[in-house]
Amino acid sequence: MSFESGAVSLRMFTLARPLADDVIDAFAENSLPSLDSVREDAVFGWVTGRHLLDRNINDESAYLGGSLRLSLVKAERKIPTSLLKAEQKQEEIVRLQMKSLDFVSRKEKSEIREELIERLLPQMPPQLKELSMVKDPESGFLYTDAVSEKQADEFVIHFRHATGIGAEPVTPQSLALSRKRIDVRDWYPSSFSPKVEDEAVSDDAGMDFLTWLWFLSEAQNDFVETSQGKISLLIEGPLQFLMEGGGAHESVIRKGNPTVSAEAKASLLAGKKLTKAKVSFVRGEDVWSGNFDAVEFVMRSMKLPEDPDKLEPISRFQDRLIKIGEFREMLFTLYDQFVEIRADKERWRAERSRIHDWVTDRKSIN
Predict the structure, then answer these.
(1) Do residues 113 and 85 touch, judged by C-beta distance below 8 A?
(2) Domain-ending residue, one of 141, 169, 197
C-alpha cells in the first residue's frame, strides 16, 4: 500500500476517455475470485485499497479521500522448487526399491511429477501480488506501482477488461507529443560526447533527457524554475549507462561516489547515456528522491517530503497525492524545457556544445 505510506513506486497513465458513471460496478464484477478457486494458473481480480482480500467493491470502499483507490491482485498457487524436487526424489527411491530397478525411466519421472503436483498444489497457500492504483481527481492521471514492463502490460489488459477503456503509459514520446506537439521520433541521434559521432549513439529521448538533467544539475549552479517553484537538482548513483548500435553496451556504477568517478567520465566520453539514476528534487525543506528509469519514465522507491504534522490516514493519503502531483509537474516542466531546446536546432547546437565541454572538463576521482 505504498500510496498510503512509505516510499512509492510510480508509473503514470492517461485514459482514452473518462471513466463511466457505473465504473465501480464494472470493477465489482471483475473482483478477485474466491481463493478456493485458485490453482496453478494465475487468477487476476480487483480489490479495494483497504486490504488484499477485500472484494466488496462499492461506492464507499472504492474511494479514499475522494480518489478512486483500488488494487489489481494476482493470485496463484506454487509448489516450492526444493519441496517438489525432494518429494520427487523420495518417490523415485521408493519405486526403485519396490521394483528392484536400477533407474527410473524418463516417462515414469514425468508421471511422478504430475502426480505430485496434483497432490501437493491444493495444499499450498495462494500467493498474492498487488498492483496498486489511484485515479487523481484533479489531473485525471492514473497512478500505479506497476513499474516493470510486464506489470504494466498486465495492468493495462485487466483495466481494459474491467472498464472497456484503454490506459496509455506516459512515456517520453507520448509526453512530448501531448504537451508540445513534438514527435521525438523525428529527432536524429545526438552524441553527448565530443569523441563519438551522432550515428553511433542512442536516439532514446528519455536517455537524452536524464543525461541532460545530470548536465543541468552540475553545470548550472543555480535553482531551476518549474511550475512548482524554484528547485535544485541532484543526480546520484547508482548510475546505469547504455550505448546502442553495433550491440548494446551497458554499465552500472554503484560504489564510492559514482557521479565523480573515472568510470562515469569514461562512459560519457564513450558516448554512453544515462538510463537510470537516483534523482532528487529539492524545494526548500521538501525533498523528492527516488530511482528514475528514463526509458520507461517511471520512479522506483521515491521518498516524498515528510509532513511534520501527524495527520490522520485520509488526510495523510490526500497530502501524499498532492506531493506526487507536485513531483509530476516538476518532472513535466523540466521535460518541457528539454524538449523545447532539443527540438530547436540552433538552441540544441549551443546546448550540446556546453554539454561537450561539461563531459570533457568534468573532474573525476579514481
Answers:
(1) no
(2) 169
